[in-house]
Amino acid sequence: MKQVETNIDNNILDVLIVTKKLYVDYKYVGHINYSINLYCKDSYIININILKHQRNKGYGTFLLQECLSDIKSKYIKKVKLNDISSNYRKQNNIYVKFGFKYQDNYNNDMIIIYDF
Question: Is residue 63 classed exposed, middle or buried when 0-12, 13-18 and 19+ CB atoms within 10 A define those classes?
């Protein structure tokens, strides 16, 4: 049984900081953090983390789907993230599977964009 716990911090005007934690059978397996700027109409995935022994079970995909669904429901058109691990070039990268595209190279980080 999958459960998602959502926490929203709204300390900054028009910016939501969202954390979604995933539990399977009441045990924590991972989380995703992202921001939504309601004024600028953009968003940024801060990080996604799945416990090592829980990886390759679809939990990262599930959390990313939850994140993108939430962002889209707020009429945001663009999602950004930095992938400093160079995972972007790997075929099995979760972001590539979702359709994220390379945009720019800044300080050796890959800036990746997803457009709805």
Answer: buried
Identify the structural domains of the chain with CATH numbers, from first to last.
Answer: 2-115 (3.40.630.30)
Three-state DSSP class for residue 27: strand
Residues written for the chain: 116
Output the DSSP codes for 62-93. Answer: HHHHHHHHHHHHTT--EEEEEETT-GGGSTT-
pLDDT per position as a tens digit, 16-70: 999 999 999 999 999 999 999 998 899 999 999 999 999 999 999 999 999 999 9
Instruction: Supply the pTM of this predicted model.
Output: 0.85
